[in-house]
Write a structure and sequence with these properties.
2 copies of one chain form a homodimer.
Chain A (H helix, E strand, L loop, with lengths): L13 E6 L6 H15 L3 E7 L1 H9 L2 H4 L2 E5 L10 H7 L4 H10 L5 E4 L3 H12 L9 E7 L6 E5 L9 H19 L5 E5 L10 H17 L2 E6 L11 E3 L2 H26 L3 H9 L1 H11 L7 E4 L4 E4 L6 H16 L2 H20 L10
Parallel strand pairs in A: 1-2, 1-4, 2-3, 4-11, 6-9, 7-8, 7-9
Antiparallel strand pairs in A: 5-6, 5-10, 10-11
Enzyme class (chains A, B): transferase
EC number (chains A, B): 2.3.1.274
GO cellular component, one term (chains A, B): cytoplasm
Chain lengths: 367, 367
Amino acid sequence: MPPDSREDGLSGRIVISVDAMGGDRGPAAVIGGLTEAAKRIPDVDFILHGPEEELTRLLAKRADIAARCTIRHASGVVTMEDKPGQVMRHGGDTSMWSAIESVREHEATVAVSCGNTGALMALSVIRLRKLPGVNRPAIACLWPSRNPGGFNVMLDVGADIKADAPDLLQFALMGTSYARNGLGLARPRVGLLNVGTEDHKGRAELKAAHELIEASAGIGQFDYVGFVEGGDLPSARVDVIVTDGFTGNVALKTGEGTARLVGDFLREAFNASFLSKIAAVLALGSLKRLQARIDPRRVNGGVFLGLNGTIVKSHGSADATGVAAAIELAYRLAKSGFQERLAARVASAAQAGQDAAQGGEEDGTSE
Amino acid sequence: MPPDSREDGLSGRIVISVDAMGGDRGPAAVIGGLTEAAKRIPDVDFILHGPEEELTRLLAKRADIAARCTIRHASGVVTMEDKPGQVMRHGGDTSMWSAIESVREHEATVAVSCGNTGALMALSVIRLRKLPGVNRPAIACLWPSRNPGGFNVMLDVGADIKADAPDLLQFALMGTSYARNGLGLARPRVGLLNVGTEDHKGRAELKAAHELIEASAGIGQFDYVGFVEGGDLPSARVDVIVTDGFTGNVALKTGEGTARLVGDFLREAFNASFLSKIAAVLALGSLKRLQARIDPRRVNGGVFLGLNGTIVKSHGSADATGVAAAIELAYRLAKSGFQERLAARVASAAQAGQDAAQGGEEDGTSE
């Protein structure tokens, strides 16, 4: 099977597990997003987790979508303030736990939640367990870029606060697998985030990772472009940016904050004078397209990689449009058979790495 | 003397040492910037370092400014590709070395260079030496913000690739000193960059720094707002953002890259249709003001803190406008007596910290 093949023999309808609770805008926004996504995707059904009475009432207004939803009752809600440890010990009755359980029981291929990231990652790790061969799971995000597809992948953006060289190599393998199946790139280009592009720059673990990733490019069927800098995150010379979860999280939030700042300044500029207000009306179509290009809701969905099951984390503040984007991403990954391909990729890379260490080098199996 | 006093008894003209070479646009851009700045600042003179013949020729066209410049001949140039170690060993004949020497010899108060950052920092450390009490120098940058003054301070953005808790405390002290003298803030608010705002988040050294900085807020005469995230860099709830040089460098370049991406998308949007082109003409004034607000040239100038002398690092790609901004920043710092105030602040904080460790807490002297 060619590595970029999207056809994988999966048939039948895709089932997505959805945590209806825990987002800032409550279950109505989640059901709104689910409805938007369902209109565009005919072959998807949902298992919806949360308080049965409330969800039944919200779905009562939408007979078309209700027919495609199974409600799974869960009375508890994980709040944004809950500590991951508490949720792991006492969260058995929550909608978040229940949503993950549907993936664990193979009732659904992917789960989507707008809830507390730390709790969602902690629960996902203890309930789904790490994939064989993976030391540290990662959260991958999409980043608006100058590439033809419009997005780059960056990971880890916050699953953990550190990563050593072998972890960073696994991030490269998992990130390329995501780029193949989520963005349709046959041979992704990988860069390692650093404070300069010269080989001698950066921390010791980055120099070690630099060599490890370079040596694994053949086996992993990706191209390694070497070190990249913060300014390269939207660059067209790279598709997958690898970094530790601390740096990635700061970069992600810095980028979002900067885009928001420029957007606010732009709005002020158009409100500054009579002429500029007329200009805003004339340019409305173009400005709307611009807004869509940098709209964080369009890239909504951090994907948890490295577990026995795929979890899509939607922004806590996501509205219906944001939730719909996260659900469509979950659908795309489920449809491509991403989870099985990623598992095979990690396993074969570990095997190939062992073979290479024994002196030979072997092409990995397709993903 | 009150801590926010700008009047400090310094009199006479300010002398700034300028490295004419090493920038991407050559000495003409540097002399252009120097001319722009000199027009706006009557009480500044320059020592200009570089090849005498070339500089004399460039200055010949500008008699007004030539009278305020002393040329100091240096035949060598530090290129962007030169390794800091090489420059430290063999860079004695370079304009960069010579520019630092003028500060070392107290001929000039501040030096400005557009050259290679790594080499400039390495040379500055060996020639000027670290301030007593400072373990790790830092580079501070200005960040466009929603605060009334329009800027926040972030440090370290790349002097070093790591920082432990006592280093981060020193960054807080040096950053507040810079905010007082560079931005005129009487009591700056300090935040520590992390992946979340809850006390339990982040790496061990960040938790330790969190407690150290909190305990030093009284002595250091700043307010500590606790952990901040990447999205808070332009926030109005903080003035000085403290982080290690690896994270700060990635954040700085990510922010610049994002602003550039949005700017490019905006230009494309205005070129998309006939109507949007008309709109661009109508909104020209407002858009130019917007551009000025986010123009990286306006915030040009990373300041090296923690040495026996102040160095302003201009962007390598700075044009005349960028160089002028760096020179005006250097002038503001020189005029305020920043270097002496910073040295006193670091020394008194170290002393006060020792006193506090012995059980008492004492208000530091003004800066």
